[in-house]
User: Which sequence fits this backbone?
């Protein structure tokens, strides 16, 4: 007699655990299956989580959620090789109430959320990879693993992440297109909490989230990031991988990291300088997450390796000032689905729903990255849809259409649609090389007073643009397009 | 459960050193003979007689001959049921004789049958059995000091069985060297009666396929051993080692890592939990030199080590060493050895699997 | 069938203070030969529908291996766990396991790995057979049931032997003779549902405390000392492979090692 559940959730990341938790709470017997040894071991992100969906899914989350630092300062920087121009925003209102966000470590956060799902009554099984959906006459009725081991369910929620194979097998999406994903890499750099607090000018449980454009990714499409954790800094890059190479490269081989820490398979090509991209920085309790997001189309075209990029980024004076003396204790990489609303698969089928990164629920609008919150919200939406379908008589695609409404209600779809054009806009190469250079050039001319006569700001900008071969019109159009898409 | 030859009785009642003699194709198994030499040494130090125990069928002549290796006497138990080794009847024989004669020490060769027997017997007698010993001594109180490599460390553990008798120990093949045979040596051959019931013969040998000597000597017999380890990276390069072994007149063996990785069968494993070998020349290729491996070959005549890592512990045991890529060095050795033998034809040796 | 949880082979570490194997905080696994034995048990279950009970003796951390066994398909597990068993050598271990097996009862075949990767004595399997007074076949690679009897293919030094024995009997299994299967999703779900692993103490089984534990073990490790190997000549041959090998072979011939 095969095992059976009302619902099976595949993947115990934020989307899966949130779905399993919400389903269990609504009286569904729920199985949560994770392929890693423990939830979170195969997950990686820049470093910051927006907390708003947690209020729905785990109302008492603040009590025991493994928060690294509460983000109380946001920053954006433009970089050239040796200069940086930055904007920081500080406000007491950041980090309060429903707008709160915090830096986190995925292995602890995901494990925490999965434990909540178990506490709510879900059965968590780890170390098993689901190979396929079990289908009878077109509808999904369970999952298949280990060759021929079947477990039945009325509903399967696919929450497998960006590299989900089940979504394709469910016929809900075509194969992943290279231009739809970026490659993200991240180093976790250990620093004493006091040093972090001092260098970033924050209090004991406060932290910083920063993004970097321009030389962070040496002009590749993408960006750098830096997040402060409790006792480390997460520093990384996300790079567009438009030119995915066919070769799947194991992170262990490629980057020489150990097995258990936040590792995933990555499709990476070779790349060159001047790649489009951007960086990010998040402060955790005792670490800083510093990273880059870079276009891998550019990576392949110009033969620069992602490790080189990351190293260049880390060695930039603006970054060194913040992380020098720290020890890199973790190196991880992951695929980042990039095209937002325009690449979404079908989310609903007979007996099946898709949530989280597997559904492409990620927003990169250039000044902030959102993924985990959308994942959690989509998990909650999935459970709501399941309940509605149960009331309507069964898990048919028609009944599960309630999912769309539930997503919209939580502004998941609305935000995705709104920022749909951001990824495309961010593929404009000028953003990552020319414009940062231009800005910094201008800043230098403005701030450098050496007695050789000063121009007005506007003249400076136009003169610089002309000598950089950017027609006035082009500059205006870019500014306009940027404002509208972001 | 039967009352064992326990520590409950006075230890002083137990005297004498015994060696279990295992049969093999009409003769004695190597390891049994090798043990007699060492057992003789211990018996002399204890001032006690050395007795061989030979269960079998039609083995009196063999028993007499065995005296020549240094035994004072041999206890023979003759029964058709004992012609082939079986656990229960052999255990019954040994247990009966031990209870009857109360030896202080019993040695077993750690062959498959020896371990099969020792394991069952020691539980029935409720006494201590130390496995895979490499050395023996006597402590201040006259207890047998049973010495074996301590797992994982560069150390030797001293095992004592202080209160229970007999003290039992097993030893693997080639740890000791066989003593010389003196045909003129005198000793007693005593027939012992042990009742073996039909119900004791509880196993039927339905089929037996003898191993034929195929493709070269076995590692624990060969004068030269070419052994491969983790550095080979897979099963295919072992073909190259076989070729080298053939040219040197030897056999191929492997380290535990190569066996655990599934590249070669366990029978080729040299080391503490594999074979002990003492060839004239041991060639270690791509073997780092973990202590467990050294325990299986450190008594080799000469040791040649080829490894890309100059810091490999194996080099500490090297008489000859080449720090280099084995995939360049070994084919070169093959090439030069072939040339020296006047073997013409191919320039590059085969690296394919045998 | 009997299993033991052992430190993972590549991860073996010796505690420098006690000179014993570090077990705490080191990744563990099912003793590999026991996994091979379990695979045989599961194949027999696939073929004949038998019940597979996994037994182990040790601390509660051994549950990890018992859970894995059930994930692979075993029906249930018993862990004999009791502080007084600590430090037992193979005599009390064989005794304690035998008593536990007798208490479980109804066994036709007992399977064990040929030896453990940490202690490597190979004594416990035959010891159990001795205590229970049943036939034993050691170093088997294959086990079949034919005409209500067990047939086991034994690998001895001189050849392969097929033995036939009546049930109940005990068979020890060669390391590497098969490919142990992976746990399945259904198996792991069964583990999560609970009630499949029982913890028994010595009192539950009726084991005499005076026959187990460190002080009641016939053998003890009296001391441990460092190995001193004879110094070796250490002639090294550097340079290009062709040149180094040429000089090496010259030296081997000069020293009479090669003809």
Assistant:
């Amino acid at each position: 007699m095969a095992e059976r559940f009302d619902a099976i959730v595949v993947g115990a990341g934020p989307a899966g655990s949130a779905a399993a938790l919400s389903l269990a709470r609504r009286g569904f017997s729920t199985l949560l299956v994770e392929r890693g040894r423990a939830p979170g071991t195969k997950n990686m992100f820049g470093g910051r989580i927006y907390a708003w969906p947690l209020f729905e899914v785990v109302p008492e989350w603040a009590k025991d959620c493994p928060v690294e630092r509460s983000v109380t300062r946001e920053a954006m920087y433009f970089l050239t090789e040796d200069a940086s121009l930055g904007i920081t925003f500080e406000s007491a209102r950041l980090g309060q109430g429903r707008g709160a966000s915090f830096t986190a470590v995925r292995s602890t956060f995901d494990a925490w959320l999965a434990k909540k799902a178990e506490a709510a009554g879900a059965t968590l099984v780890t170390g098993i990879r689901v190979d396929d959906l079990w289908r009878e006459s077109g509808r999904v009725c369970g999952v298949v693993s280990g060759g021929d081991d079947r477990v039945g369910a009325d509903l399967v929620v696919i929450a497998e992440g960006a590299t989900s194979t089940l979504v394709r097998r469910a016929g809900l999406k075509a194969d992943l297109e290279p231009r739809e994903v970026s490659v993200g890499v991240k180093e976790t750099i250990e620093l004493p909490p006091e040093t972090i607090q001092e260098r970033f000018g924050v209090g004991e449980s406060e932290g910083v989230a920063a993004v970097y454009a321009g030389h962070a990714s040496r002009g590749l499409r993408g960006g750098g990031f830096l997040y402060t954790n409790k006792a480390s800094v997460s520093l990384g890059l996300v790079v567009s991988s438009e030119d995915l190479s066919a070769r799947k490269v194991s992170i262990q081989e490629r980057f020489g990291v150990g097995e258990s820490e936040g590792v995933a398979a990555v499709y990476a090509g070779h790349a060159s300088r001047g790649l489009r991209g951007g960086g990010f920085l998040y402060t955790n309790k005792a670490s800083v997450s510093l990273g880059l997001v870079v276009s891998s189309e550019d990576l392949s075209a110009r033969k620069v390796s992602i490790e080189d990029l990351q190293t260049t980024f880390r060695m930039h004076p603006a970054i060194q000032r913040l992380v020098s003396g720290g020890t890199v204790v973790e190196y991880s990489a992951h695929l980042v689905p990039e095209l937002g609303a325009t690449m979404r698969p079908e989310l609903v089928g007979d007996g099946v729903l898709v949530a989280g990164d597997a559904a492409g629920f990620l927003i990169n609008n250039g000044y902030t990255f959102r993924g985990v919150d959308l994942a959690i919200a989509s998990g909650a939406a999935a459970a709501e849809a399941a309940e509605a379908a149960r009331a309507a008589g069964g898990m048919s695609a028609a009944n599960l259409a309630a999912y769309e409404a539930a997503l919209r209600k939580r502004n998941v779809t609305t935000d995705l649609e709104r920022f749909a054009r951001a990824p495309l806009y961010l593929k404009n190469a000028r953003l990552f090389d020319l414009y940062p250079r231009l800005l910094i050039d201008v800043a230098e001319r403005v701030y450098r007073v050496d007695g050789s006569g000063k121009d007005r700001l506007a003249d400076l900008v136009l003169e610089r643009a002309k000598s950089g071969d950017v027609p006035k019109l082009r500059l205006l159009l870019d500014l306009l397009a940027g404002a509208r898409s972001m | 459960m039967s009352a064992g030859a326990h520590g409950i009785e006075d230890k002083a009642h137990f005297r004498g050193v015994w060696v279990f003699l295992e049969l093999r194709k009409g003769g004695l198994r190597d390891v049994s003979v090798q043990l007699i030499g060492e057992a003789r040494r211990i018996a002399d130090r204890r001032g006690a007689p050395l007795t061989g125990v030979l269960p079998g069928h039609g083995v009196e002549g063999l028993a007499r001959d065995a005296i020549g290796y240094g035994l004072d006497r041999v206890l023979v138990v003759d029964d058709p049921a004992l012609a082939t080794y079986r656990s229960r009847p052999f255990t019954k024989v040994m247990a009966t004789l031990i209870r009857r004669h109360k030896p202080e020490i019993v040695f077993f060769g750690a062959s498959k049958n020896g371990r099969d027997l020792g394991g069952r017997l020691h539980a029935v007698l409720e006494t201590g059995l130390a496995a895979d010993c490499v050395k023996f001594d006597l402590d201040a109180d006259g207890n047998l000091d049973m010495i074996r490599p301590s797992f994982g460390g560069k150390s030797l553990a001293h095992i004592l069985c202080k209160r229970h008798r007999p003290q039992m120990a097993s030893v693997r093949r080639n740890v000791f060297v066989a003593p010389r045979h003196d045909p003129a040596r005198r000793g007693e051959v005593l027939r012992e009666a042990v009742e073996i019931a039909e119900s004791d013969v509880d196993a039927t040998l339905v089929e037996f396929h003898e191993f034929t000597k195929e493709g070269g000597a076995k590692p624990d017999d060969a004068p030269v051993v070419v052994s491969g380890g983790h550095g080979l990276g897979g099963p295919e390069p072992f073909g190259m080692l076989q070729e080298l072994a053939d040219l040197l007149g030897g056999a191929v063996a492997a380290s535990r890592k190569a066996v655990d990785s599934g590249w070669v069968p366990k029978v080729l494993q040299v080391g503490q939990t594999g074979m002990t070998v003492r060839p004239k020349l041991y060639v270690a290729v791509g073997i780092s030199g973990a202590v467990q491996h050294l325990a299986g070959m450190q008594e080799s005549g000469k040791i040649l080590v080829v490894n890309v890592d100059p810091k490999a512990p194996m080099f500490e045991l090297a008489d000859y060493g080449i720090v280099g890529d084995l995939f360049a060095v070994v084919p070169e050795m093959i090439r030069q050895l072939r040339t020296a033998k006047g073997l013409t034809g191919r320039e590059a040796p085969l690296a394919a699997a045998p | 069938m009997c299993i033991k949880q052992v430190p993972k082979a590549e991860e073996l570490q010796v505690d420098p203070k006690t000179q014993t194997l570090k077990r705490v905080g080191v990744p563990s696994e099912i003793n590999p030969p026991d996994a091979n034995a379990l695979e045989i048990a599961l194949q027999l279950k696939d073929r004949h529908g038998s019940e597979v009970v996994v037994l182990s003796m040790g601390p509660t951390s051994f549950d990890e291996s018992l859970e894995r066994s059930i994930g692979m398909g075993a029906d249930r597990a018993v862990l004999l766990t009791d502080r007084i068993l600590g430090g037992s050598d193979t005599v009390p271990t064989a005794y304690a396991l035998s008593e536990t097996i007798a208490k479980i009862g109804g066994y036709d075949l007992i399977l064990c790995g040929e030896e453990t990767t940490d202690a490597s004595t190979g004594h416990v399997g035959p010891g159990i057979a001795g205590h229970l007074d049943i036939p034993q076949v050691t170093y088997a690679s294959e086990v079949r049931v034919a005409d209500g009897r067990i047939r086991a293919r034994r690998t001895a030094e001189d050849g392969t032997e097929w033995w036939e024995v009546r049930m109940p009997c005990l068979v020890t299994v060669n390391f590497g003779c098969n490919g142990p299967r992976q746990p399945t999703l259904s198996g792991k779900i069964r583990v999560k549902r609970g009630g499949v692993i029982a913890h028994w103490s010595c009192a539950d089984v009726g084991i005499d405390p005076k026959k187990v534990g460190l002080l009641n073990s016939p053998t003890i490790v009296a001391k441990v000392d460092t190995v001193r190997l004879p110094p070796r000549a250490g002639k090294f041959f550097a340079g290009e492979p062709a040149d180094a090998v040429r000089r090496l072979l010259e030296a081997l011939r000069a020293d009479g090692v090669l003809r």
About this structure: Residues 229-259 of chain C form one domain.
